[in-house]
Amino acid sequence: QNEEKWDFVLVSDIHEAGSKKEMKRNKFLDELSKKGFTIKKIEDTKLFYGVRAPQHIFWKYQCLQRKADSRQQNSSTHEDVAEATRIRIVNFILRNTVTSDLEKLHDLMKKKVFEAAFPLHNEEDIREILKDKCARWRAIFKKQPIKEIRRYFGEKVALYFAWLGWYTYLLVFAALAGLVTVVAGTTVFSSSQVSKEICDANTTFMCPLCDQNCSFWVLSDTCTYAKVTHMIDNEATVAFAMFMAVWATVFLELWKREKAMVVTKWNLHRWDEDEEELALQLINNLQHEPRQYQHSYLRSAIILILALLLIMVLIGIAHMLVIYRAVAMAVFTQSDVSLLSKHANTMAVMTGAVLHYITIIIMTKVNRHVALFLCDLEKPRTLSQQENSFTVKIFIFQFFTNFSSLIYIAFFLGRINGHPGHYVRIAGHWRLEECHPSGCITDLFIQMAVIMLLKQTISNIMEYLIPFVSHQLRKKRKRPKERRVMLGEEEEAEDPCKRHWLNNYELNEVNIFSLFNEYLEMVIQYSFTTIFVAAFPLAPLLALLNNVIEIPMDTFKMMRLQRRMVPRKAKDIGIWLEVLEAIGILAVIGNGLVIAITSDFIPVQVYKYIYSPCTSENHTGMDCSTGYINNSLSVFRIQDFEPHTKVLPEFQGHQIKECRYRDYRSADDYTYTVQFWHIFAARLAFLILFEHVALCVKLIAAWYIPDVPQRVKNTILCDKYKNLHNELSMMEYVTEV
């Protein structure tokens, strides 16, 4: 049975005899034969070549590994090499075998000489363990079998699942905190003085939301939105934002500890990627010269310029979304459909959010191609460096793709649009949109909710539906051949390998960035969960629900829908850790800005302590925010409207001479009042205080929780001591002899 185990399968079309492609294929296979590889050919609708490496290749690898790790010096001469290690070594040799035409497998696949190259799924024990423990729905709340995943898929995939499991586990605490924040807002919003005042303001006439055919409206119309806004915009949100800043730090610090324990258990803390790569290169070709590290300031400058150009395009797309919302607002308000005209602002924001989601889908593909091009331009030396370079670029591009529009809504919407009688206009025609009547944070809440729900429903369905449909279609292509056999045509006895190889070939192709896609999806989700979480406290709960489904689905996809990934060795999650730490710092800045600028938290506090009735009289039984809404609305005389603004002065039987709008401006000349500057100073002071306190707490948390547990440090220390002790004992023994 051992003789029928094959390390890799190469697939080729059946080329014409004597054709250029056939000659190139034979040259490659001859090179493998010279290295001692056993090759088995099976013909079906395609040509399948099973490849098995000679044992001496693995003995050489073991020997070099023992030299690298002195602790294994006394181990037996030739141990059985783990299946994942075999596949990794064979994959490296296949990818780096050069034909007499100086072509590698990658070049031959580009020229369609070979169609595919993949390791085979193991149908035996390990796959059964993974299926039973990991890829079944009943296993959602069970501990992941990281040990078995490592043996089957290698350390890199095992570390991904370990990290994802740890992240999901800690999301429980963030989700509970977010839920408590919303519940606290829900239980107090009915008694909120601000919400009550909005709901009772049926004689407060607000200025029209557009220039043509728009009437005045009553502030109490936004009563429901005001109550919803108070669910997320209250004192508890500040505490929650601070909690999430600390949570992000604690999560990463605890992950570092978990990773240190896992890596030490796997005996990888001394493993060096450069040494591993050099060892494999020498096993493949003893005359190999190591590729030198390169750096070019000119190349770096070109990469920087091109990256900045793409970032400018992404910011430009965010501007286009702003223009869309301004035009949509004007169109919806003038619509004959009462539902559209009545909820024009909400409809503009929601359709804008859907459009934003579509741009995310399109630009993700563009970003990937640009990042790969820039990566090739940079010429990184190793695969790991290439991945790190690609990761940084794609994350920056994806960050701007996902967050440009959110940044505008959070910090610019409603602050650069002017005021009645002097609006800022696009092309001198369309008014820039204003904040939602119930507050600027409502727009951000709607945008976050729509994008997160769409990302975690449509994107996830597509992530699993496309591979499933693709797999089913690939299987159907094989049926005509089977039908001929059923009709009774003579056929020679089928090779036992044939069905196994065909089944693996019918699975979806995997590439070097298959695991990268999973990481990127989770890191973008982590960004949504932390950066603007003050505006959407339910984000961690949505992320948790998504991940509980994601873990078994990822395993299901890897096991049953995709060809086997080439196992890779790793001792950490790579540059993703630095990316997550950067997101943690951005989360502090983002949430500080949301509370200081987007939220009404600061204006309410300033009113309470400086302008409310509580400051002038001793009203012990009065809520100090009484009168806040009237205080926060400025007065505008309708005679000062711009000439082309058409507004009917009569509204609900009232002859309107003045209307109100959200701002702190003088009723005489519409300049900013002293209160505006008080609030501005308070916002700035809060922002500085919040960010310094949050960053200090993060630093203290990072210092308080050691990256490496004492147990792991002591294990490594004992190992070093034993090695040195053994070396010295051997030296003394040799000296005595």
From TrEMBL:
Membrane-spanning segments: 157-184, 236-255, 301-324, 344-363, 390-413, 523-552, 573-597, 680-705
Domain of life of the organism encoding this protein: Eukaryota
Keyword tags: Cell membrane, Glycoprotein, Membrane, Transmembrane, Transmembrane helix
A molecular-function term among this protein's GO annotations: protein dimerization activity
Membrane topology: Multi-pass membrane protein
Domain annotation Anoctamin dimerisation: ranges: 77-146
Cellular location(s): Cell membrane; Membrane
Entry GO CC: plasma membrane
Residue stretches making up the Anoctamin transmembrane domain: 149-715
Pfam families: Anoct_dimer, Anoctamin
Family per record: Belongs to the anoctamin family.
Protein name as annotated: Anoctamin
Origin species: Gymnorhina tibicen (Australian magpie)
